Amino acid sequence: MLHFIDAEARHAELLRDTLIASKGYWGYSQEQLEQWRANLTFEDEYIARNTVKLVMAESEVIGFFALVKGDTDELDHFWLLPKAIGKGYGNLVFEQILAECKTLEIAEFYIISDPDAEGFYLKKGALKVGEVYSEPQKRMLPKLKFTVVQAT
């Protein structure tokens, strides 16, 4: 059974390490992963200002997500540790993301997706609306839009 807790400033390294471990699942080189680790920080203000939730299985962190509410709302992060990938957790977490959207009155959000995750989001109902260049990855990343279905 999954549950979700608010991330706090003290979780900044945990968030970074979870993201890097998740990216490692997709075959990026160790050199690339270490470069990202060295250049990635989760600022206290980012964690405080946005909806950042740790994904817990029992008492263990298995991932996190971050929703940014602004001029354009965005699912800024959604990462699961490699041992949690392919076990249905992604679907459960996405349901929680949608529940958070309803609470935050987010009707639609954008996702700049890692190419390996694009298929997951498309299956969930996201639409590809363009591409965005990623300087760290030196390639184009899919830009997706997801419309949250409102209960009538």
Topology:
Elements: E1 2-6, H1 12-25, H2 30-39, H3 44-49, E2 51-57, E3 60-68, E4 74-80, H4 89-103, E5 108-112, H5 118-124, E6 127-134, E7 139-147
Antiparallel strand pairs: 1-2, 2-3, 3-4, 5-7, 6-7
Polypeptide structure, described:
- This protein is of the alpha+beta class and 152 residues long.
- It has helices spanning 12-25, 30-39, 44-49, 89-103, 118-124, and strands at residues 2-6, 51-57, 60-68, 74-80, 108-112, 127-134, 139-147.
- The strands form two sheets. It has a four-stranded antiparallel β-sheet with strand order 1-2-3-4, sandwiched between helices. Strands 5-7-6 form a three-stranded antiparallel β-sheet.
- The mean pLDDT is 94.
Query: Structural class given helices, strands, pairing?
Result: alpha+beta
For the residues shown, what is the average pLDDT?
Answer: 94
Order of SSEs, N→C? EHHHEEEHEHEE
Strand order of the largest sheet: 1-2-3-4
Query: End-to-end span in angstroms?
Result: 28 Å
Separate helix tally: 5
What proportion of the residues form beta strands (DSSP E)?
25-35%
Features:
single chain; 152 residues; alpha+beta; four-stranded antiparallel β-sheet; 5 helices; 33% strand
What would a concise description of this structure say?
This protein has 152 residues and is α+β, with helices and mostly antiparallel strands. It has helices spanning 12-25, 30-39, 44-49, 89-103, 118-124, and strands spanning 2-6, 51-57, 60-68, 74-80, 108-112, 127-134, 139-147.
